[in-house]
């Protein structure tokens, strides 16, 4: 019998239920420290102050610092977070150093709360959006953070055609760029042609951490042609080995989830600042002495001294390092298929394995390219009977037992349990294993001719062969694909799966050369779906939506690329457009419901199994992190648990080696 990792309904509701902006379940207390509070700092910083190398903590903090409520208790200073990424994918460690968007997702996984901005508001007609920034925050080099950084990014980066081929898409409404105004040193305002209903959520999520809406102007002006002396800038470009000022500027300002990987001089607002750029596959980020948050007793955060990040050549090497006790913090792209390996090493490695929930409605979405170049396959891939047959031919119970050790439930790619858009009937539709019904549907489609091995032939007499390309670094996808080969053979379909480099997968999708794709079915939470329904609406050309990439290219290019959709595909794009400008919650719910209904009626995505937990690796004495939590792209990993308030009991990891 298939086992499931069952959270309480309350836990799922935290993710799913719609919430207004609030501080409930937040780590930010919303209160100021008592007057006369004596702020404390890490011993290393106190020593620098004593040497005269650093201002006193009271001068480094804002007059009203942000107060963070520790999850369990006030921590102690000290220790190193040791984590790892695979093949330079910085996003795998993004929760280890922040990020610090303008707004942030609360610990409940849903609510939006203040962060760098202390408040935000819409005008009565919804078209004007105003941000009020916190006063007194400083960059890691001590320079003030204020609205000038927003003005610099907007006017001199976002609207500079040399640096930005097009203005940031998430800041446009109905294809129009808004008017920007720097009202004063701590207030910025955008006026749109229509309400930008999703802007607060976007400011708290990925675009707030990948494409900054603010930059350290005081540092970057020296690399920008609008500000730097032309001769001095030209000399700097040559000295750095670049051809243009834009190349130099992009190099010096480059960040991954707001962490500068290659330039220690780039100021940051994160709890940690880069101290050693990536060298020999190791990066070090130490405590930011000007970090602007404190705990409830006035200790300047973070508690932990630094982050030591290792870049591994493969997932296998990274997982071996976990099992050997070399890492004490990993919770992105760990694989459930390696759970026995992780658990086997936890005692001797001084770490523990926790099982957290994810934002994956299905562990994988299997996608037929509906605009595939082969006309015979295109006809089949657009026939709902063929897709239903494929779904019914999958033995999801076997997938759950063999690949996920019984911790799985058959599921289509809809929304995670607890979502306001969750429909259990849609999630379960055509997930039963019924090869007889699958065969009948394939016959009904017209695939009745077979070769001497019993394998089906296409209408043109060629063998019916489906080819899937899988990222080489996803063992779960490969394990599922190997089972699909057997399942489909039983209904007369030849199914091939090959592992290729992620970069090759990207090229195949972009060039419309992929027939069948597979990807993790994430981003299916209420905090993500309204503004980024990547799997359910073809709109994003940088995503991994195989079934509709040609239509996403058409949508994003205004009809200059890709293929124009029609029927239900065109309809979901129209609904997506409406969602962007709709503030009425009842109408937003109706829009989302129609998008999901069109998805299940067309089976653009075919899910395998859902409710599979993800292993979270934490040092055995790592504190102030939840025992039962959530991780996934909907929360940029799990940045809502606030790494700055975590600590090691005793001031150092129990597995630290001399």
Could you walk me through the main structural features you see in this protein, from its secondary elements to its overall organization?
The strands form eight sheets. This protein has a five-stranded mixed sheet with strand order 18-17-19-15-20. It is built from 22 helices and 24 strands. It starts with 8 loop residues before the first helix and ends in a 10-residue tail after the last strand. The longest helix has 18 residues, at 585-602. Helix 11 runs parallel beside helix 12 (339-345) and helix 14 packs antiparallel against helix 17 (435-445). A hairpin with a 2-residue loop joins strand 7 and strand 8. It is an alpha+beta fold and 658 residues long. The chain has a domain at 362-610: Dipeptide-binding Protein, domain 3 (Roll), CATH 3.10.105.10.
Q: What is the name of the CATH topology of the domain at 362-610?
A: Dipeptide-binding Protein, domain 3
In the CATH hierarchy, the architecture of the domain at 362-610 is Roll
Strand order of the largest sheet: 18-17-19-15-20
Low-confidence stretches: 1-25
Q: Taking all residues together, what is the mean pLDDT? A: 92
Ends apart, CA distance between termini = 47 Å
- The whole-angstrom Rg is 26 Å
CATH class membership of the domain at 362-610: Alpha Beta
Shape: globular
Going by CATH, what is the homologous superfamily of the domain at 362-610? Answer: Dipeptide-binding Protein, Domain 3
Helix/strand/pairing category: alpha+beta
> Helix share of residues?
25-40%
What is the strand tally?
Answer: 24
Main pleated-sheet profile: 5 strands, mixed
Residue fraction in strands: 15-25%
């Amino acid at each position: 019998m298939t086992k499931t990792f069952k959270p309480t309904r309350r836990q799922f509701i935290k993710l799913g239920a719609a919430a207004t902006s609030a501080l409930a379940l937040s780590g930010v207390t919303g209160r100021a420290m008592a007057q006369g509070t004596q702020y404390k700092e890490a011993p290393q910083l106190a020593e620098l102050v004593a040497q005269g190398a650093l201002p006193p903590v009271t001068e480094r903090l804002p007059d009203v610092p942000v107060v963070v409520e520790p999850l369990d208790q006030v921590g102690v200073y000290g220790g190193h977070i040791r984590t790892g990424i695979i093949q330079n994918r910085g996003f795998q460690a993004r929760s280890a150093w922040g990020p610090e968007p303008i707004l942030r997702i609360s610990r409940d996984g849903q609510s939006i709360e203040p962060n760098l901005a202390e408040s935000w508001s819409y005008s009565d007609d919804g078209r004007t959006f105003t941000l009020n920034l916190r006063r007194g925050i400083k960059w890691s080099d001590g320079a003030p953070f204020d609205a000038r950084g927003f003005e610099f990014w907007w006017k001199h980066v976002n609207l500079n055609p040399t640096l930005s081929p097009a203005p940031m898409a998430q800041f446009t409404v109905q294809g129009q760029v808004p008017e920007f105004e720097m009202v004063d040193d701590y207030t910025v305002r955008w006026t749109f042609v229509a309400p930008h209903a999703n802007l607060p959520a976007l400011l708290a999520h990925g675009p707030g951490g990948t494409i900054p809406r603010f930059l350290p102007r005081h540092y970057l002006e020296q690399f920008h042609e609008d500000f730097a002396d032309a001769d001095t800038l030209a000399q700097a470009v040559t000295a750095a080995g670049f051809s243009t000022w834009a190349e130099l500027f992009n190099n010096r300002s480059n960040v991954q989830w707001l962490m500068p990987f290659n330039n220690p001089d780039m100021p940051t607002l994160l709890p940690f600042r880069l101290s050693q750029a990536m060298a020999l596959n190791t990066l070090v980020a130490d405590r930011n002495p000007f970090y602007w948050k404190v705990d409830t007793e006035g200790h300047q955060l973070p508690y932990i001294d630094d982050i030591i990040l290792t870049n591994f050549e493969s997932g296998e090497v990274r997982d071996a390092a976990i099992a050997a006790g070399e890492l004490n913090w990993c919770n992105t792209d760990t694989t459930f298929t390696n759970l026995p390996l992780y658990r086997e090493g936890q005692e001797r490695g001084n770490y523990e394995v926790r099982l957290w929930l994810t934002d994956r409605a299905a562990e994988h979405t299997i996608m037929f390219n509906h605009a595939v170049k082969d006309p015979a396959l295109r006809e089949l891939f657009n026939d709902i009977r063929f897709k239903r047959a494929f779904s019914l031919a999958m033995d999801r119970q076997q997938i759950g037992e063999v690949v996920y050790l019984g911790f799985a439930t058959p599921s289509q790619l809809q929304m995670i349990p607890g979502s306001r858009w969750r429909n259990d009937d849609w999630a379960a539709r055509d997930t039963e294993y019924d090869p007889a019904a699958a065969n009948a549907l394939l016959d009904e489609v017209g695939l009745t001719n077979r070769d001497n091995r019993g394998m089906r032939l296409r209408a043109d007499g060629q063998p019916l062969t489906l080819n899937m390309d899988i990222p080489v670094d996803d063992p779960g996808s490969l394990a599922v694909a190997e089972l699909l080969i057997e399942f489909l053979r039983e209904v007369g379909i030849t199914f091939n799966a090959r592992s290729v480099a992620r970069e090759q997968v990207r090229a195949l999708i972009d060039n419309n050369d992929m027939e069948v794709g597979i990807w993790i079915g994430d981003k299916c939470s209420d905090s993500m779906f309204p503004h980024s329904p990547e799997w359910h609406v073809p709109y994003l050309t940088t995503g991994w939506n195989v079934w509709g990439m040609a239509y996403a290219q058409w949508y994003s290019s205004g009809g200059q690329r890709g293929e124009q959709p029609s029927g239900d595909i065109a309809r979901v794009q129209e609904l997506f457009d409406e969602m962007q400008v709709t503030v009425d919650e009842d109408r937003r719910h109706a829009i989302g419901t129609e998008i999901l209904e069109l998805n299940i009626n067309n089976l653009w995505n075919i899910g395998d199994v859902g409710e599979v937990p993800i292993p979270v690796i934490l040092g055995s004495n790592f504190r102030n992190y939840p025992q039962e939590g959530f991780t996934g792209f909907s929360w940029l990993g799990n940045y809502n648990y606030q790494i700055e308030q975590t600590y090691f009991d005793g001031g150092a990891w129990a597995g630290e080696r001399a």
